[in-house]
Amino acid sequence: DWSSDVCSSDLFVSNRNHIYGTGGFWRMKAEPGAAPREIHYEETSWKARPDFSPDGKRLVYGSYLGQQWHQLWLIPAEGGEAFPITYGEFDDINPRWSPDGKRIAFISNRSGNTSLWTQEIPGGRQTQIIVTKRNYLRPTGALTIRILDENNQPSPARVFVVGEDQRAYAPDDSWMQADDSFDRSERAFEAHYFHSTGLSQLTVPAGTISVGVMKGLEYSFEQQTTNISEAHYAEVTIHLHPLKIPQEAARHWVSGDVHVHMNYGGAYRNTPKHLVTQAAAENLSIVEDLIVNKERRFPDIKSFSPLPDPASIATTLVLHSQEYHTSYWGHLGLLNLTSNILLPGYAGYPDTAAASLFPSNAHIADLAHEQHALVGYVHPYDSVPDPSKDESVNHELPVDLALGKVDYIEALGFADHQATAQVWYRLLNCGFHLPAAAGTDAMANYASLRGPVGLNRVYAAVAIGPLQIDPWLNAVKRGQTFATNGPLLGFKLNGKEVGDTLQLPAGNSEVKFTAWLRSFVPISHLVLICNGEVARDLKLSPDGHSADIEDIISGLQSGWCLLRASNDRATYPLLDSYPYATTSPIYVSVADTSPVQKKDVAYFLAWIDRMIMAAQDFQN
Predict the structure, then answer these.
(1) Does the model's pTM come out above 0.85?
(2) Which end of the chain is more exposed for a tag (fewer CB within 10 A), N or C?
(3) Mean pLDDT of all residues in 50-62
(4) Do residues 447 and 175 make contact, with C-beta atoms less than 8 angstroms apart?
């Protein structure tokens, strides 16, 4: 990962012989065939970046060592006990000694954004390095971007700025963030963006500048270009245009992301107030910050509360909940615990006191439900498990759902949406009711991350009125939802809403359904799915941005139906693998017939058999 040559000896970081972290510090002579030796080990992250003092006697490095945040630590060059030389509730990282050994330079995120500092050794006085003048390699100009909503008022939004050199630009004080999982067949470089309050000023290279602006999923994506002359000023005004979404008199759709990490070891130092600004720019109403272990720490545990964070505003609520991080049984979202975070926060952690597979997720779900929380399975499947071939199938969702312990599934999340759907459909075919939710798994303080807060979001239908968390969570639990990364959906079956049950007599013939779609990116497939099969391929507008359908379907059997929209490939500026949306099911009961499909029951029975064998092998 990193090496340094001092006194004819190399220093490097390696995780050889270790399970956790990026590894310990190793030294070896700078000569062929030299044997390496480990001089220090702790469960490091990717921020250690050790550096020899100029006299070769000490090492400085970044570590969280028993704390929530990284600070600077010293050890003897040949190894030994570490002690800190900086302290704070933020990250101090990437240390480098000055040539005279009297100062250490480092990067800090104490203000939220990154900044450069030095510390005197000894003495401890810290000084920020302030940039007072910038010398540019190429001619530059100044650009002001104004963003106005449909009422001609300043509006927060996400902004993409790209110069003729294909580089991205942002204001000096903004958090620049980038999509690290972009599709290289769709674009050559990852998309970079920043969140604006509605007015942004930045320095850009002379030439043609492209500006893109989006505000969540309910507005069109707006793009403009402008020419910047050397040493001159230009201004761009972007007007946002809301999509024409069908409205209802008594209720409306409220968006939320049920899987966000406010801080998770990233470059920046996030706060609830800044998280609110991120959500507002993404037009996201509810943020579930899932407090979770990162290595052996819980960076945001001090923020836990059963109430909305005080930084919340009338249009944006931030809640501090939990992700239970047991990779063996599968990760759980525990939304709105009313008493405490569940600790230690994981099981099946080899070579630790938490190595046992107990508690299972079923036990954790019980503890969470005692606190009146909602329990869901998050980022479930990157591929479809095959119990007939896979030697180890240990994801606990099917068992917990059968035991009545699961309230929702992330139908969209940091997994493959279509693989997740295949397992979800099989569970629905077994007669279970399982609502769709969505969570980005956004590490909201990263510079390079999988999309922004609200990339994957769930819309829940609630009564029109002040924004409140309890009615929204109740709607999620009832399945009055659709999950999406772009397309907005509406679906009714014989007047029944998603989450409802439609009762039909034996020998039913024709049933009326309505469906609509609005999308800021084009969609190629809109389908009605019943009992896991495509029941109807629905017609989209020529541009793929909308649909309004009233039609008849016949021959319904007991089970379920839902509406699904998708595209086949990545579509800028939607920063996910591909556009995708699904409603929760409308359940169908025809006379006294059973909705259960035997082949799907057999699939999960084989799954459970594999789970039992895998657990026995693990314990042995």
Answers:
(1) yes
(2) C
(3) 95
(4) yes
